[in-house]
Amino acid sequence: MPAARPNDLALFKIMLIKTRDLESKVSLFNGQDISLEYLLVGNESVPTILFVHGVSADMRQFLPQVKFFADKYQILLVSLRGHGRSSNPTRMNETAFNFAAFAQDLWELIQHLGINQLHYVGNSMGGMTGYELLAQHPNLFLSLTTFDTAVFMNIPPFLAKAGSRSVPMMVKVMGKQRYANLVAKQTGKTPETVAILADAILPNIHPQAVYLAQCNIARYDYTAVLQKMKRPYLILERELDRGGKLMKSTFAFAQANDHVHLIKIPNAGHIANLDQPELFNEHLATFLQSSQS
Fold first, then answer.
1. What's the rounded Cα separation, in Å, for the pair 206 and 212?
2. Which one of 124, 154, 235, 273 has the minimum C-beta count within 10 Å?
3. Which residues are CB-contacts of 226 (< 8 A; sequence separation ≥ 6)?
4. What rounded mean pLDDT belongs to the chain?
5. What are phi and psi of 74, to 5 degrees?
6. pLDDT tens digits, one per residue of 141-185
7. What is the torsional sign of CA 87, 91, 95, 100?
8. pLDDT by residue (tens digit) across 51-109?
9. CA gap 175, 241 in Å, rounded
10. CB-based contacts of 213: which residues, under 8 Å, 6+ apart?
């Protein structure tokens, strides 16, 4: 994909400023041990889409999707515990940042908002959290969509810990903004993605929370849960997939199960909704419409 022209990037930054107007609508939910920031917009009489980010990101990852989907759906964005402006739990340990803890927070928020069913969209760890929420509350789901989320993972835990231990150290040495700029350039595949990561998302990082969360992304298996699921499931595959070996199980699962739809998004990396927002929105909108018919 050609690099964005200067005026393209300027227009994107204008759009980003406009989406920040939504910040005035952000609310705070006080749970048992944490407080979660969330954004709920749209009409409560229409179906809800819950968008959940991956590790190190926050709910602002999906601000560009709000305008596109808000006409037909109620939109719920949330920052997981220890991410964005949501708080850390009292005890900072691995258990406090496992999928069950994230899913329980979401369940409490959903109950607080009086939402009975929803479409779930999760990126990376947000998808893993969706698997756990599905295991606990299958009737909540109208559909499930994930991107860059493996159905199961089998990595030695010591490797996961070694790989993530550098995050708190790098943030301490570099400072949050310099760290945000570095990671944004490594993660984003377009100037627009780099801009929103560096300007609006990664400066909010909680280094210790990211480390503890990543420790849990090593060994898990939700194959049986997804095979029992009665709702439509969409897997969006990024073309620029450096983690191909880790995702092979997911692609094989998609091919072996009739209720799973697999769609490739070209020129997209780990955060496909930012790298290719128009294609992402188009594929997701088509899938959601078909899942309701």
1. 10
2. 154
3. 131, 134, 151, 233, 253, 257, 260
4. 87
5. -85, 135
6. 999 999 999 898 887 777 767 667 788 888 888 889 998 999 999
7. negative
8. 999 999 999 999 889 989 998 999 999 999 999 999 999 999 999 999 999 999 999 99
9. 29
10. 55, 82, 97, 125
Determine whether 67 is exposed, middle or buried from the number of CB atoms within 10 Å of its CB (0-12, 13-18, 19+). middle
Written in H, E and C, the secondary structure of the chain is CCCCCHHHHHHHHHHHHHHHHHHHHCEEEECCCCEEEEEEECCCCCCEEEEECCCCCCHHHHHHHHHHHCCCCEEEEECCCCCCCCCCCCCCCCHHHCHHHHHHHHHHHHHHHCCCCEEEEEECHHHHHHHHHHHHCHHHEEEEEEECCCCEEECCHHHHHHHHCHHHHHHHHHCHHHHHHHHHHHHCCCHHHHHHHHHHHHHHCCHHHHHHHHHCCCEEECHHHHHHCCCCEEEEEECCCCCHHHHHHHHHHHHHCCCEEEEEECCCCCCHHHHCHHHHHHHHHHHHHHHHC
191/8 Cα distance (integer angstroms) = 9
Amino acid at 204: N
